Amino acid sequence: MLSAIDSPDDLRKLEVGQLENLCAELRSDILDELAQNPGHLASSLGAIELTVALHYVFRTPYDRIVWDVGHQAYAHKILTGRRDSFCTNRKFGGIKPFPSPLESEYDTFACGHASNSISAALGMSTAALGRGETDRHVVAVIGDGAMSGGLAFEGLNNASDTPNNLLIIINDNNMSISAPVGGMTEYLHHVHTSSFYNRLRNRAARSLEKWGMLSTGRRKFLIRFGNALKSAITAQQNVFEGMNIRYFGPLDGHNIKELVHTLERIKDMKGPRILHIHTIKGKGYEPAEEKPTIWHAPGRFNKDTGERGGGSGEKAQMCPPRFQDVFGETLVELARRNPRIMGVTPAMLTGCSMHLMQQAFPERTFDVGIAEGHAMTFSAGMAKEGLQPFCNIYSSFAQRAYDNIIHDAALLSLPVVLCLDRAGLVGEDGPTHHGAFDIPALRPIPHITLCSPYDECELRRMMFTAQEEGRGTFVIRYPRGSGRLTDWRCPLEPLEVGKGRMLKEGNDVAILSFGPIGNVAADAIAEVERQHPGMSIAHFDLRFAKPLDEELVLGVARRFRRIIVLEDGARIGGVGSAVVELVADHAAEIFAARKALPEIVRMGLPDEFVTHGSVAELYALCHLDKDSIIAEILKA
């Protein structure tokens, strides 16, 4: 069946009774592909029946389906003309890792981050009504813990009081990447409604609408009255109906016939409504059902045995650890020494390795759900009362906490250690997940220290320095994946804040690097000096973007004719810009000393959203690879 479906129009030619077999084919197809081409597995397996039902009932792409956390949308990609190209998913030059309107008219909005679907869909529904398109349906699909995000609640609040015909589907799988947390999760887990009550209420509503007796005001009154009546009878309040949003469910999200029937019944209703479905993350593949956290994005695996790829045994022991694992183990080590240390993360407990802190100190570890702004302000509140929180947020997700960083932490110089995991290029997850903008965003903020480690030992030293008394708001950014050191358990010693270091002496060209990308520079320097014995390149590790080591930079500016500044963040406003600004401020002094100003080459991410692909491919694309650095050195 699947081979004959090139678009949802083909899907809608099937009989309802055929859809269950189609779902089985989709599930098998996704498993086959992801076993060889890694991606987000468990979430997409759990949303297959929902995806088929939505495209079967609604006239996509005219009707809008707005996905939240787009890693649940692989079946959507396959059904919307990308079946043959799905083998290129997440690969350089292939289809995008998450739905994007830049790729397909069926992808209605960007959805790499969580919790934006309700707000975006509400805007689309409002626009459709404003244009008189009363036959256009708009559906928001929110799931994988995204209901814990503040933006979702803002959208719900506005949807209850704005003219719209929005359908919100809560794909409730009781999971995000890890187990979800918070009051909304508990509420969704326990909410129950009477099917008889719902049928009676809906039948009455349809009759009143038919007779012209159900205006918007009366509908809201009846929802409130019905909610109060049900609450009095069952001692249970439905929070959504309390907001004047009609609620249906919960339904079995894997019963395709029931889903289709329910969607057809409620799709033409007026006003906002919610359909709550229960699904199983990893549905149809036993290993993923049993351990959905591990199988969220498992890498390569054997479909038949469930064995996941990767090194093991002695070989794995010899491999450098991932930066996030060094963070997790060092945090536990510091927490044993310093009882004020707390761990905070917004739903990235295993991803950032803070689960190690949770295992060692469960009472001092807080997973606050997909709520980055809250994570930061919650940490600031603890810091205000004398604690030392380490708040770990993925760099691109921290964009949602920008005001909280400024207003709630930096303004009072509160001692929050903000650890930005996945800084720089993250690879196959693409532009929504690259940590490209943290340096330019944070560098102008007063009272902030911003640093990045050259290697794993430097990360440990920076974490130790950050938790010392009087450090204020301290930001450490580091990349996804492994570094280079196998012997990384160096002593925990403080660094002098705002001071870089010389890694290698030289006379012809100076390279100022910031963060682990300095290792690429070291490789380039070694290659140049091997091929050109007469050349001598100096290499400096800045360590800190703020405060910048002015003495080091100005000393280099007075001495070298050509300076290359290397970073893995946005070039505009980044560390290279900081160097140029400093040299410009002291231009007269530098010129007087050597009758010339240095040529400063800034190497960083370009002024565009970088696509997806392996980190090596993207470094080459952005001219940050070894060959590009060599070419810049040789221009001297």
Helix/strand layout:
Blueprint: H1 8-11, H2 19-36, H3 42-46, H4 48-57, E1 64-67, H5 74-82, H6 117-130, E2 138-143, H7 150-159, E3 167-172, H8 183-190, H9 195-210, H10 216-234, E4 246-252, H11 256-266, E5 273-278, H12 286-290, H13 313-318, H14 323-337, E6 341-345, H15 355-360, E7 365-367, H16 372-384, E8 388-394, H17 402-410, E9 417-421, H18 438-442, E10 448-451, H19 456-466, E11 473-477, E12 501-504, E13 509-513, H20 518-531, E14 537-541, E15 544-546, H21 550-559, E16 562-570, H22 575-585, H23 587-594, E17 599-605, H24 615-621, H25 626-634
Parallel strand pairs: 1-2, 2-3, 3-5, 4-5, 6-7, 6-8, 8-9, 9-11, 10-11, 13-14, 13-16, 16-17
Antiparallel strand pairs: 10-15, 12-14
Helix pairs in contact: 2-4, 4-5, 4-11, 6-7, 14-19, 16-17, 20-25, 21-23
Give the terminus-to-terminus CA distance.
62 Å
Query: Tally of extended strands?
Result: 17
Q: Roughly how many Å is the radius of gyration? A: 27 Å
* Regions with little confidence, pLDDT below 50 for 5+ residues: 311-316
Q: Approximately how much beta-strand content do the residues carry?
A: 5-15%
The helix/strand class is: alpha/beta
Helix content: 25-40%
Q: Average the pLDDT over all residues and give the rounded result.
A: 90
Number of helices: 25
Largest sheet: 7 strands, mixed
Shape: elongated
| Spatial ordering of strands, largest sheet | 7-6-8-9-11-10-15
